[in-house]
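Homework help thread (please don't just give me the answer)

Our assignment gives two proteins as sequence + structure token strings and asks us to describe the second one. The first is just a warm-up. Here they are:
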Amino acid sequence: LFRQRDMINPDRLERMEKLLIIFSEPIRNSLHYERLHKKEQVLEKAGNEREQFIGFVQNINALTSEELIFEMINQEFMRWFKIDVCSVYMAIDGYMRIVSASCRDRRWVDVRNGWLEYLHNNPYPIEVSAGAVSLAYINDKPLYFPDTQLIKHLPMSEIDRGGIDTVVSSVRTFLYVPIRHEGKPIGVLGALTVEEVLELTDDDLSL
């Protein structure tokens, strides 16, 4: 409360305080209801996402073609996390070889094609010094670079540098997550965004 010309009468303030007591309980109840409603919305969203994930797993299990499986994995992760380009790398004959790449929007087709061609010609040796994909695979831990534009001037492996300089110079976020079978890494899921930074929480990375 405020007045522009003179002071508020203390007696009026006292009466206002008494009146506010009448409304305090409804206000408290309203805030409590709002918090409960938000929690209900979170639980409902989590339930819907769980159903979608179960459906995704069932569809994957029904497929027999590796190419279709990789494509479905890419499409689902792009839909969930708003990723622009998603790719799958598998450990084959001592190298991390890219076996699939997809884009969320036709604007990024050239980026997808360039990335796929570059990494077909420059597979990552399975060595720590080879680059980000190999490092995620060897350490069996996700690698997350929220904004590559802030670190692209720093030293990096020859393969990583070549990809950024020649194919995805405007890339924002890079993410590499190990793909495991029976608790051991067998490949890596790679993701990147071209225009916007992808903000991920620890829960997102765990998922």
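The one we have to describe:
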Amino acid sequence: YMFPIGMALVIIVLLIFGFFNRLHLGVYAVLIYSITLMIVSILVLIKNKNIARLRLLFNPVCFIMCTAGAGLAYLHNARLCSGFDEFTHWATVVKSMTIIHDFSANRASGLLYQNYPPSMSLFQYFLEVLAIDFQGIEFSEWRLFFAYQILQWSFFCPILELAMEKKTGKKAIIPVLCLSFIVVPAFFYENYLTSIYIDQFIAILYACC
């Protein structure tokens, strides 16, 4: 359950910092907290010689997510927005946030729809700012798709973890589940892998819950 919870916490922390007009600072707060928590957790487990729990940090679900992340980065590299609503809001809102480092409700954003509550856009903003600040590169549309899919697929992780707990036939069911995560949503949203519309994300979120 660590993937969806961890990514949801990123959004919550940024939301809190944004309320105090410190959205950019929130990115670094999340980064520092995450690194500190990981180091402390590993040191505590090593000190207590709890190797079994230490191995949980590198479980098969973690490997699957890392593999999926690499695949998504390759799939979406250099991808550009094409949907109408992506230009009117879902992509534009994130670019605006990286410029003014504030929510879309700020009049300086110049957005058409300023009252949409931020959620997915905050996670996309987080990854965009990390790349801009640490790699010195400009805003890239393909990272919007990458961030969207990573957050979306994180909600599949608890299902995979539950399947891994089953002793019977777990090795056989994992590939089937992974394939179903790709195929089944496509029956309802044929472009769900190449779109950042919020509709399919909400549908998948409710389905996983």
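TA reply:
I won't write it for you, but here's a hint about the kind of observation we're looking for: DSSP finds eleven helices and no strands in the chain.
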